[in-house]
Amino acid sequence: MAEKQTLKIIDDVLSPEQWININFKGKEPVKVFLQIPKIVQLILKAEGKDVYEFHTKWDVTDDPTTFYGSWRGGRTEDRWSKTYVYAIGQGAQGKDGLGWLTIWLRGEIETSYDYTNFIQRNLWWFYNMRFYYKQRRAYLEQGKDFIYMIRDEMRMKLGIQPNMG
User: Fold this and answer.
1) 0.85 exceeded by pTM
2) How far, in Å, CA of 141 to CA of 66, rounded?
3) N or C end of the chain, less CB within 10 A?
4) Other C-beta atoms within 10 Å of 74: how many?
5) What is the torsional sign of CA 11, 16, 19, 22?
6) pLDDT in tens, 7-45
7) Residue 63 phi, psi (nearest 5)
8) DSSP symbols for 58-86
9) Residue 106 contacts residue 18 (beta carbons within 8 Å)
10) Which segments of the chain are extended strands (E)?
11) Measured CA angle at 5 (ends 141, 54), to 5 deg
């Protein structure tokens, strides 16, 4: 029996840009930093197990205290596709509560098809291009909406006014 292989197609949600960011200077940025995974989970309507923490680092040996964290939130769309949102936060906060925070956000749509021979692989490519393309485009637009909603929620929590232009 032939070995099962996987055809993976990964699209950047924000293409041609890869990341959007939020820059903040002001009071208590660590409060929003600690809420990043919860905001990602809430907007994606994902379960807690679907938000993975890559790193969280603190340096409390000096003033200001510096911090860094990175997370990935995932959401299953259908049998073949998943949406991933990546968030990175980095900042510092002094004992007086003042500091800065930069948050980067990006997203991917990952589509996977399993096959065991070259005929199946070609059929999956054909299916993807002829029939599933519109659905993947819809997931890309939805993923972009998720990232902008996460950005807007974080801006609101930081007290940053939306751009009006």
Assistant:
1) yes
2) 35
3) C
4) 18
5) negative
6) 999 999 998 889 999 999 999 999 999 999 999 999 999
7) -115, 120
8) EE-SSSSEEEEEEEEEEEE-SSSEEEEEE
9) yes
10) 5-12, 20-27, 51-59, 65-76, 81-93, 98-115
11) 55
